Amino acid sequence: MSFQRPIFNKGLFGRANVSVCNLWTDSAEVVAQNTEGIAWATQQLVRGRIEESWLARLTEAVQIGPYRWKYRFEPFTIDLSNNLAVATNLQPGTFGSTLDTEHHHYAFNIRELRNTADKLDGSLLNLGTSAGPVGSTYIGNDQWTLAGLQGYVHLHLEYDAQGKTLYWFDCPNPIECEQIPQEPPPGGGE
């Protein structure tokens, strides 16, 4: 038996006219033709692989461990008509999705996952070296600004299988190497 697509010449009982009945048939045909893609998209959603991304400016950092921070952010756009000026006054709802309460407006730098008290991105820190949050400014004496950050990142939003959100980006931390006083070489130097 072969598949035959029905073509309606008159509507069904009630208010479904000829156009509505033919659109139902069209919709069923589109679903049948795209079953594989629909199945893939459903699997990605359940597996937490659906992602959104946009440009964001980091505004504040809160330390959560040695050389690790969580960051507050705001979306921005680049105004091409004004010498690449940054516009941050976007209307709510123009980026991302509903925030969960656990990570409400905080993003995490995945490059900081391997940071420890003596390692930065897995590499040993030299004596006198300090690292700060992305977009911060070194103040001195191993201190960095935590507010008024000027870090611009490509921010990602991922959903897990339960629908919770994770905001993340990947960016190197700024590093400051303080001058370490050196003793003159033996023998008097010059």
Give a brief rundown of this model:
The chain is α+β, with helices and mostly antiparallel strands and about 190 residues long. It folds into two domains: about 10-45; about 50-175, no CATH class.
Number of helices: 2
The major beta sheet can be summarized as: 5 strands, mixed, barrel
Distance between the termini: 101 Å
Share in β-strands: 25-35%
- The parts where pLDDT drops under 50 for at least 5 residues are 90-103
Domain tally:
2
Query: Strands of the biggest beta sheet: in what spatial order?
Result: 1-2-5-12-11
Number of strands: 13
Gyration radius (Cα, Å) is 27 Å
**Average predicted confidence as pLDDT:** 77
Order of helices and strands: HHEEEEEEEEEEEEE
The proportion of residues forming helix, as a percent range, comes to 10-25%
Gross morphology: elongated
Which secondary-structure class do the elements indicate?
alpha+beta
Describe the structure.
The protein has 190 residues and is of the alpha+beta class. It has 2 domains: 10-47; 49-176, no CATH class. Helix content is 15%, strand content 35%. It has 2 helices and 13 strands, in the order ααβββββββββββββ. It has helices spanning 18-33, 35-47, and strands spanning 51-65, 68-75, 77-79, 85-87, 106-109, 119-120, 123-124, 129-131, 138-140, 143-144, 147-159, 165-169, 175-177. The chain has a 5-stranded mixed beta barrel with strand order 1-2-5-12-11. It has a two-stranded antiparallel ribbon with strand order 3-4. Strand 11 (147-159) and strand 12 form a beta hairpin.
